[in-house]
Amino acid sequence: QVQLQESGPGLVKPSETLYLTCTVSGGSISGYYWSWIRQPPGKGLEWIGYIYYSGSTSYNPSLKSRVTISVDTSKNQFSLKLSSVTAEDTAVYYCSRYHSTGLDYWGQGTLVTVSS
Amino acid sequence: QSALTQPASVSGSPGQSITISCTGTSRDVGGYNYVSWYQHHPGKAPKLMIYDVSNRPSGVSNRFSGSKSGNTASLTISGLQAEDEADYYCSSYTSTSTYVFGTGTKVTVL
User: Fold this and answer.
1) Rounded to a whole number, what is the distance in Å from the CA of A46 to chain B's nearest CA?
2) Torsion over CA of A53, A11, A89 and B99, rounded to 10 degrees?
3) Are B96 and A108 a contacting pair at CB < 8 A?
């Protein structure tokens, strides 16, 4: 059974960079697309971007200038970097895997708060 | 890219059928058979219910079905049960090789 686990700081200061890592267990990261999604408090889901195991990426246009998603196949991990964060980036961040064009496995989510 | 449009809320009595709509454009929902649906109980991870418009993953009840007509996709829940009360989101692939989620629909079982 594939499992995903997000990890990273729960508190980030405004203007700094948010870093999260997703560790995949129970299966290989190879051969799949992997994605980051977030949900601000009281709001809906927002797609951040995806990465293919080979390294090709696609990002939400509204976040593209601040987002980088990378993959480390040797560690079975992929990561999210979001720069110049503001309070609007406060959200639960999820990592997930694509099966065809649906996200079939999800992490439990991690709350990241942007505050000084 | 704009979020796909869903009704804010839909309700039904146990045993009834309800349908949730998801409206986009020809650049997303209407242009590809790549619409998925997710059930989200607060505090838990979202769950994939439908992918590629009408395909159900293994383990998902056949009470859930998906369809599409033009720029609007739909999720139908038949034989509504108390456990179906949750938030539901659609998602679509887009012409710019990105994905977009819907605004979300709160389903209430009366």
Assistant:
1) 6
2) 20
3) no
pLDDT of A26 reads: 96
pLDDT at A24 over 90: yes
pLDDT for the residue A99: 86
Average pLDDT over residues A57-73: 97
Residue for token pair 């990465």: A51
Host H or E run for residue A5? strand A3-7
Q: Nearest CA of chain B to the CA of A107: how many Å?
A: 7
List, for residues A95-107, the tens digit of each pLDDT value: 999 988 899 999 9
- B103 → closest Cβ in A37, A44, A99: A44
Contacts of A115 (CB under 8 A, 6+ apart): A11, A13, A14, A87, A90
What does the pLDDT look like over B8-64, one tens digit per residue?
Answer: 999 999 999 999 999 999 999 999 999 999 999 999 999 999 999 999 999 999 999
CA dihedral B48, B54, B56, B62 (to 10 degrees): 110
Query: Per DSSP, what are the bridge partners of residue B25?
Result: none
Cβ proximity of A38 and A92 under 8 Å: yes
* Residues in A 22-61 with any Cβ partner in B closer than 8 A: 35, 37, 44-47, 49-50, 58-61
Mutate to test the interface with A, among B98, B100, B105, B106 (most CBs of A within 10 A): B98
